[in-house]
């Protein structure tokens, strides 16, 4: 007589799940993340490292003598440039080391911060939103394994970037000492670590990856704004910003390591909060619960445009508030520039009068508003693609809604939303600048300069739409166009690019406003190209098969 026995494996499996550590499976998740981002991570790391190392040879070529470097230091020693790049240390004896820190560290820190937020949310909240985390947690995977693995990989990427910079910068430019280069790498890595913690915490707050990314990006913007306003006016504000802490190391000048302890402490606090929150919420849920929906859909949801607007309303409002605050803050700096130039006759001889310097500063601020509005437009177009890949487009298209109408609704939100963002940012900038300068004519000039960037913004959006229609798997390449605009527009003067390199940027035609003449022909051409690309994208979306993941 035989006795039936149950297979002990399920019982062992359950025991492992119930009695295992909250970090069980972390190593497996780390390998999974590295496998999944085997292309993305090297691109991020290589782009940041090469942008720094590749720019170093330009310093001795452009400023070969001490007199040239001192002239450059005088150009940087004004409120407009301080607001954009940070406080200038070592300007009394402007060495290549001081030049590297003053002109590169702030931009590299922002890139590290954005990379950290995007990657952290991608491997935490985005995984929960798609349901993959719940599937993995059904096996032997601890509650904190996903967050720990993501933090380990992203923090490791930051540390690797810092190490590569420390190793590669001295041989590229002999004047950069190894010890100071190590501090430079540690400073930018510390900013990345802080925003890795910010991304981890943001992923716990909301149920949606898009909202978590928005929170993290907003934190980067706040840190940049606090640093800028603090460096120009109230220095105490700069000490609230992790970017300000990195710049207070005074690398290549005084080499102070202790400000980085603030970054380490804040990172530890943020990560601890993220872990504590993970222990107190359900998988897929956020710290802030979603509002209960209405029992019946409103009249606005009866159309594809209403649905698209509802899906993107939160993001549009957040971006709008951000650009409005950005414009208000930087417009208020106009009076500081005027006072600085009026008190410095030598600088007037070098740069011209205050109006010239203010126009140059405002042109950069308006360009940054345009770049941000274009970034929103790309995210709005990518929402169309995500609705398709998530399978939510098919039920809508199964009704009487045509593909052109469905896609056109999201495109309209992208185009109209970018217009609203430029209105918000342009109005904020124009109002505070005109009040600060006590000149009503400034309002119309700055507002017009903001509107002149719309053709370039819409061309970037149209390129993304064309990719959605013709090659949806390549739609993320549209970010390359925007990145090109950032590099050429914001850093072009520093790198001294050839004219043809700057002229092909979608933002070049209006980049000289205010104070210069717009490229009217180029603006018209961009409008025509945008219309054509939008048509091509809609036609392609209408004819191709839908894809889901």
Automatic annotation (TrEMBL):
Q: Which domain of life is it from?
A: Bacteria
Could you identify this protein by its name? Answer: ABC-2 type transport system permease protein
Naturally occurring in which organism (per UniProt): Jiangella mangrovi
High-level lineage: Bacteria, Bacillati, Actinomycetota, Actinomycetes, Jiangellales
Question: What keywords are annotated for this sequence in UniProt?
Answer: Membrane, Transmembrane, Transmembrane helix
Region (Disordered) residue ranges read 1-22
Where are its TM segments located? 41-59, 104-124, 145-169, 181-203, 215-237, 257-276, 316-337, 357-382, 411-437, 443-470, 477-497, 521-541
């Amino acid at each position: 007589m035989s006795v039936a026995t149950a297979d002990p494996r399920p019982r062992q499996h359950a025991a492992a799940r119930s009695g295992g550590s909250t970090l069980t499976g972390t190593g497996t998740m780390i390998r999974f993340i590295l496998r999944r981002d085997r292309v993305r991570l090297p691109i991020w790391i290589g782009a940041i490292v090469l942008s720094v190392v590749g720019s170093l040879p330009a310093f001795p070529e452009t400023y070969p003598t001490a007199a040239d470097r001192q002239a450059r230091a005088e150009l940087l020693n004004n409120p407009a440039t301080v607001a954009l790049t940070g406080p200038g240390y070592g300007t009394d004896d402007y060495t290549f080391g001081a030049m590297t820190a003053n002109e590169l560290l702030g931009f590299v820190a922002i890139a590290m911060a954005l990379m950290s937020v995007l990657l952290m949310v991608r491997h935490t909240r985005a995984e929960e939103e798609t349901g993959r985390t719940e599937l993995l947690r059904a096996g032997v995977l601890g509650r904190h394994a996903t967050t720990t693995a993501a933090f380990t990989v992203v923090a490791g990427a930051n540390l690797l970037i810092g190490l590569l910079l420390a190793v590669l910068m001295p041989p590229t430019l002999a004047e950069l000492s190894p010890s100071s280069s190590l501090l430079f790498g540690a400073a930018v890595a510390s900013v990345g670590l802080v925003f890795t913690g910010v991304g981890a915490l943001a992923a716990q707050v909301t149920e949606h990856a898009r909202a978590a990314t928005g929170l993290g990006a907003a934190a980067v913007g706040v840190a940049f704004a606090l640093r800028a306003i603090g460096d120009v006016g109230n220095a105490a504000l700069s000490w609230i910003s992790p970017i300000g802490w990195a710049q207070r190391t005074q690398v290549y000048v005084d080499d102070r390591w202790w400000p980085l302890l603030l970054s380490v402490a804040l990172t530890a606090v943020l990560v601890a909060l993220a872990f504590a929150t993970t222990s107190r919420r359900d998988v897929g849920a956020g710290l802030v619960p979603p509002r209960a929906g209405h029992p019946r859909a409103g009249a606005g949801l009866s159309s594809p445009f209403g649905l698209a607007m509802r899906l993107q309303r939160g993001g549009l409002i957040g971006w709008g508030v951000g650009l409005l605050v950005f414009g208000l803050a930087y417009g208020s700096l106009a009076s500081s520039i005027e006072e600085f130039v009026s008190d410095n006759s030598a600088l007037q001889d070098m740069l011209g009068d205050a109006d010239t310097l203010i126009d140059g500063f405002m042109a950069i601020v308006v360009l940054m508003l345009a770049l941000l509005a274009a970034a929103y437009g790309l995210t709005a177009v990518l929402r169309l693609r995500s609705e398709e890949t998530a399978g939510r487009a098919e039920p809508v298209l199964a009704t009487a809604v045509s593909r052109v109408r469905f896609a056109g609704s999201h495109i309209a939100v992208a185009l109209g939303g970018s217009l609203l963002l430029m209105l918000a940012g342009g109005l904020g900038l124009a109002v505070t600048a005109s009040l600060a300068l006590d000149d009503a004519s400034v309002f119309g000039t700055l507002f017009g300069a903001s509107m002149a960037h719309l053709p370039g913004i819409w061309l970037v959006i149209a390129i993304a739409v064309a990719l959605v229609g013709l090659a949806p798997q390549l739609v993320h390449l549209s970010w390359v166009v925007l990145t090109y605009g950032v590099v050429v527009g914001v850093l072009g003067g520093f790198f001294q690019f050839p004219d043809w390199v700057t002229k092909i940027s979608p933002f070049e035609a209006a980049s000289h406003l205010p104070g210069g003449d717009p490229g009217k022909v180029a603006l018209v051409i961009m409008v025509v190209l945008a219309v054509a690309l939008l048509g091509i994208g809609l036609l392609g979306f209408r004819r191709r098969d839908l894809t889901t993941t």
